[in-house]
Automatic annotation (TrEMBL):
Protein's organism: Algoriphagus boritolerans DSM 17298 = JCM 18970
Protein name according to UniProt: PaaX-like protein
InterPro entries linked: ArsR-like_HTH, WH-like_DNA-bd_sf, WH_DNA-bd_sf
Residue stretches spanning the membrane: none
GO biological process, one term: regulation of DNA-templated transcription
Length: 168
């Protein structure tokens, strides 16, 4: 759906990253996270910044980007992204109820902007509530009409390919 409106896959990834939750990022980390060249990410960051959808702030020698909450279309874009993901409220509930979740990633097709009907997530944390996870998998399908596959890792290996939707 979103990928039919926005033809640049990199731009879709950036919109999902910045408008799914209150995320921020800088060029090199985004390029690594998306497994894209820094040039393609830079071009899209510049376009979104020029359109006023993103704000760029200097933190030392690094330029950090985040969604512009004051943009007139902020809520509409956030709503589109939430509908595309179908996981906005659900992610928040999972993260809050699972225990000490350090990071949550959406990986697979959804991270690429493709609605395949299955949402793949990776939660990073220790001593997470696995019984709640089993309960929420069934509820998720009822709520968002998509199968959810969740993988749990004790530590972030540092090379996960996907969209970080919770944590830093």
């Amino acid at each position: 759906m979103l990928d039919s409106l926005v033809t640049s896959k990199t731009r879709v990834k950036l919109l999902l990253k910045f408008f799914a939750h209150r995320n921020s990022g800088y060029l090199r980390s985004l390029a690594k996270e998306f497994d894209e060249s820094t040039n393609s990410v830079r071009v899209e960051l510049n376009r979104l910044t020029e359109a006023g959808l993103l704000l760029a702030e200097d933190e030392g020698k690094t330029k950090v980007y985040r969604a512009n909450k004051q943009h007139p279309f902020f809520e509409e874009i956030k709503g589109m992204v939430s509908k595309f993901l179908g996981l906005d409220d659900l992610m928040e509930k999972i993260v809050n109820r699972m225990g000490k979740v350090e990071k949550a990633y959406i990986v697979g097709d959804y991270a690429k902007g493709i609605d395949s009907g299955t949402v793949q997530m990776i939660l990073v944390g220790k001593n997470l509530d696995l019984s709640y996870l089993d309960f929420i998998r069934n509820k998720t399908y009822e709520k968002v009409q998509r199968k959810v596959e969740v993988q749990i890792l004790d530590e972030d290996p540092g090379n996960l390919q996907g969209i970080l939707v919770f944590g830093r």
